[in-house]
Each structure stands twice: as C-alpha cells, then as structure tokens.
Amino acid sequence: MHSEASDAEFDHDVSVLAASRPFQVVLDFTTGLLTPSGGSFVRRLSDMASAYEDQEVVKRMLASGDDPVIYKSYCADVPHEPGHLAFLTTIITPGTVGSEFFMTKGHHHYRDSAELYLAMSGEGLMIMESHEGDFVQQELVPSALVYVPPGWAHRTVNTGSGRLTFMAAYFGDAGHDYASMESMGGFSIRVHRGDDGPQLRPSTSRDRVEGPR
Ligand code: S6P
Ligand code: ZN
Description:
- The structure is a single chain.
- By secondary structure, this protein is mainly β.
- It has one domain (5-210): Jelly Rolls (Sandwich), CATH 2.60.120.10.
- Helices cover 12% and strands 38% of the residues.
- The strands form 5 sheets. Strands 3-4-5-13-8-11 form a 6-stranded antiparallel beta sheet, with no helix packed on it. A 3-stranded antiparallel beta sheet has the order 10-9-12, with no helix packed on it.
- It is globular and about 50 Å long.
- It starts with 15 loop residues before the first helix and ends with a helix.
- The relative contact order is 0.18.
- D-sorbitol-6-phosphate is lined by residues 73, 88, 90, 104-107, 115, 154, 156, 168, 170, 176.
C-alpha cells in the first residue's frame, strides 16, 4: 500500500458535473494553460532540491534566496478512480541548476500503466527508464506524441530557451511513485547544457547512493 501523500498535488475537489458528465476544456498550446482547470501545483527548486546532481549549486542558490519556479501543472477536473482518464498540462521554465536543465521530478506509476504525452510548445527531452534499467529518450517538439509503456519511469527536461509545455494523460488509479527513483539516486542519465546543445551524461548520484563498488 503506498502513501497517499505523494498524490496530494494531483487531487482536488472534483465537481460532480465533471465526474459524471462529458465536458470540454481548452488547451492553450502557447502558454500551456488548461481552462477551466480543476487545480494546479507548483514545484520550486526547494521542492525538489535533491533531484539535481550538483548539490553545492543547489545549496548556494537556495541560501542566496534564489528559489525559482521550475514548473507548474494544471490538472483536469477528473477523479483519480479506476475507469477515468486523468490529464494535466505542465509548463517548465527555461533554466539550469549548474549545467543541468530544469526538469520534472519524474516518477513511476504505482499501477504499472501507460501514459500519453503531447508536446505543445518549446523544446525538450523526455527521458524514460524501465524497471530493468533500459533507458530511452524522445524529443519533445510541438505536436510530438510520446507513448510511455507500463513500467517506465518518466521525466521531462526543458532544453530550450523558452517555456516547454505539454499535456499528459494517465489512468485515474495509476498513482504517482516518486520514491522508487529517488531511492536509487534518480535516473541513470542526466541532461546538461553542452557547448553544442543538450548533452546526456551518466548520473553521478547513482554512485552516491550505491557507494563504492
Ligand atoms: C503525470 C505526468 C505529468 C507529470 C508532470 C509533473 O502522470 O507524468 O503530468 O506529473 O509533468 O511531473 P512530476 O514528475 O513532478 O509529477
Ligand atoms: Zn506520469
């Protein structure tokens, strides 16, 4: 049984109307807004400090009061129950922590189930890792649809100079498991700003967690 706390951000007061009747919302492909939305959540650097590789830079930024909004999500008014299809938009701010691009926390779903991503604006990468440790990256450019099969942890990274916006749809009872990736030290690959664009490098946080071999 997993803790409900990690899904708190996705929960909101679902209106009786939206839960039981067809409805329509509008996606703004430029801003990433979902109107009307059933709620939203924001993650600042301080909400996900341990996700970044360079902990010295994180500490320095936070100590100097630099706590940027990394991303914001707008959730549709859909119950997190079996049979429903939950969806939300995410807007990732451009920027880096050290050389590592702003990104989402990333998660598995408790119930191994598929998810569909639609990129709306900006440029980014989606990184995905299976329970067996296979790694796949996909580019996020406007109109790209990425299918995430059951069992693949997923994280999105803004590699552009503007906002990265996308929509994701997942099973209502999928749940969000952040702890499984965190306990391993995060994803095995990280996305940094290189001289000629985004550079994928093996993560050193895995070593921190596993210790010397
Ligand atoms: C939900 C889906 C996305 C993310 C969102 C924030 O299953 O994968 O909508 O929730 O992009 O990322 P995270 O990893 O902080 O939940
Ligand atoms: Zn997901």
